[in-house]
Amino acid sequence: MLSAFTNSLKIPELRQRIFFTLALLFIARVGANIPLPGMNIGPIRDFFADQATVGGGLVGFYNMFTGGALLNGALFALGIMPYISASIIMQLMGAVFPGLARLQQEGDVGRQKINQYTRYLTLVICLIQGLLLLVALSTNPGSIIGQGFSPAEYGQVVIASKAQFLITGTLFLTAGSMIMVWLGEQITEKGIGNGISLLITVSIISGLPGAVAATYQMFNAPVGTEGRLGLPQGVIMLALLFVVTAGLVAITQAQRKVPVQYAKRVVGRKVYGGQSSFLPLKVNYAGVMPVIFASAIIMFPTQILSYLGSATGMRFFNDFADSLGRGQFAYYAVFGSLIFIFSYFWVSLMFKPVQIADDLKKNGGYIPGVRPGDPTAKFLDHVMTRLTLAGALSLTLIALFPDILLFSYNVPFSVAIFFGGTGMLITVGVLLDTMRQIETFLLQRHYDGFLKKGKIRGRSAARNKQLVDTAGLQDFWTAWRPLLILAIILFSLGIISWFINLG
Questions:
Q1: 424 to each of 138, 141, 359, 429, how far by Cα in Å?
Q2: Is 80 within 8 Å of 199 (Cβ atoms)?
Q3: Which residue, 452, 454, 434, 430, is CA-closest to 444?
Q4: Residues with Cβ < 8 Å from 81, sequence gap 6 or more?
Q5: pLDDT at 47
Q6: Among 490, 433, 417, CA closest to 183
Q7: In this structure, how many other beta carbons lie within 10 angstroms of the beta carbon of residue 274?
Q8: Ranges of H-type helices in 230-271
Q9: Domain extent at residue 300
Q10: Cβ-contact 465, 19 below 8 angstroms
């Protein structure tokens, strides 16, 4: 394992991709700590210093995806979720409007056009969400920060004029979210791993120090205090963490191998085919996408309703949003249903049984006991439908498990999210995918990977040096110039915001 990380730094192209990715992730964390102009985060910090933990409601859930940027009143407070919401809307519209459906089938050209439309829609969502968020902060900050927050006790959050705060804040939040989108695309293109998923993962992992601190406080709480942990409970929690993580890895990696036999073909004096292979059909074929989509869908309307209730003073919107909050039966029913819907929806988009059956037929392959052509497509569709059902059930159970700890055993929210749930599903899935990509780079360069079965023996260090391909390396300045410019812009925004808040 350690040798794999060492070997990854020996390949110039892979090393550059890793460092580039780490630099962009660092910038994302910097942006999550740059306060908005006209906003004082001191009262927010004082309020949460008096609280045991950030609650597990809508705000705490959304704050997890932004890495604390939401409650920091930071430039990246909206995070990457507006882009995910826009992507979901575009996918759903593709199933309704024939024009978008045709674009989805036109390859790279159509994909670029859809990405352009998605960015435009992201911009609109950012403007709406940013404005409603700032209106709620300026009129009723307790609805965003948490129940019990009083400006008279902790101080004013908004220190600038309302009009100035709304205009500049909305522009800053929109710009911050679009910067996050750009960072994700750059990581995907020039870095390692999926950029959008990595940004979410890093935001979730940023809460790990707080979770460790909350766990330490639970062990050191006075005897008789509610939520105090002893040695037996600590051992159980460690064992539970191990079991949940192992279960997540097993579900992510589980697959059904459908046997495939290739017929023998005689071409001249040579015989081709005749070998046996298999089709790996994943149990969790959709990965973490159904959970991300379901989280975005359930957060977007509740967030909008909460902001509208705070801005207009109408209790109806707040009550409706509270009925869809965590701990309520409606939330779990809707969330579980959305996971099932998006699991089958994503599989229907990505898994093409007819195309697979045609490819097998063209290459002389067939599934034993199943006729080639349409019967093979129906068989694969039947198998994938059953696998998707098992995967959706597993995803739902894992996604809802932290709420059992949160509401039944009074485990702090910052600790419970690391015992399964959306955060851990995304983290484990993204880390496994990133390691898989690094593994591919290593094996292509004849280095040992993360797994023993990936080792390639019988080579020398001199040969490894010769096999390093430097043709695809980019010039340092060309690759890192946008990054340096962005860092300067963020630094300037931070200085401007600091001077405005100081004045």
A1: 34, 30, 36, 8
A2: yes
A3: 454
A4: 62, 65, 66, 296, 299, 300
A5: 73
A6: 490
A7: 11
A8: 231-253
A9: 2-220+233-502
A10: no
pLDDT at 62: 63
Residue with tokens 């859809």: 114
* Pair of tokens at residue 377: 């497509």
Tell me, what CATH number does 262's domain have? Answer: 1.10.3370.10
Series of mean pLDDT values for 10-residue runs along the chain (503 residues): 69 84 87 81 72 52 67 80 85 78 78 88 90 82 70 79 85 89 89 86 81 77 65 79 83 87 71 74 84 75 70 71 74 86 85 87 84 89 91 86 76 74 78 83 67 44 41 49 64 62 54
- The angle at the Cα of 124, spanning 493 to 312, to the nearest 5 degrees, equals 90
> Rounded distance, CA 151 to CA 43, Å?
8
H or E element: which one contains 452? none
Q: Report the 3 state secondary structure along 35-59.
A: ECCCECCHHHHHHHHCCCCCCCCHH
Both structure tokens of 438: 């690094």
> For the sheet containing 365-366, what is the strand order?
276-282, 255-262, 365-366
For strand 255-262 and strand 365-366, is the pairing parallel, antiparallel, or unpaired? Answer: antiparallel
| pLDDT at res. 38 | 80
Q: Is residue 178 part of a domain?
A: yes
Contacts of 51 (CB under 8 A, 6+ apart): 146
In a domain, 462, yes or no: yes
Q: What's phi and psi for 325, nearest 5 deg?
A: -85, 165
CA-closest candidate to residue 121, choices 96, 92, 99? 92
Q: Could you give the 3-state DSSP secondary structure of residue 265?
A: strand
Q: Is residue 227 part of a domain?
A: no
Please tell me the distance from the alpha carbon of residue 145 to that of residue 333, in angstroms, as a whole number.
26
Collect all residues with Cβ–Cβ distance below 8 Å to 282 and sequence separation of at least 6: 254, 255, 387, 391
* DSSP state for residue 460 in the 8-state scheme: -
Q: 3-class SS at 255?
A: strand
Query: Considering the entire predicted model, what is its pTM?
Result: 0.73
In a domain, 106, yes or no: yes
Q: How far is CA 190 from the centre of its chain?
A: 19
Whole-angstrom distance, CA of residue 424 vs CA of residue 248: 8
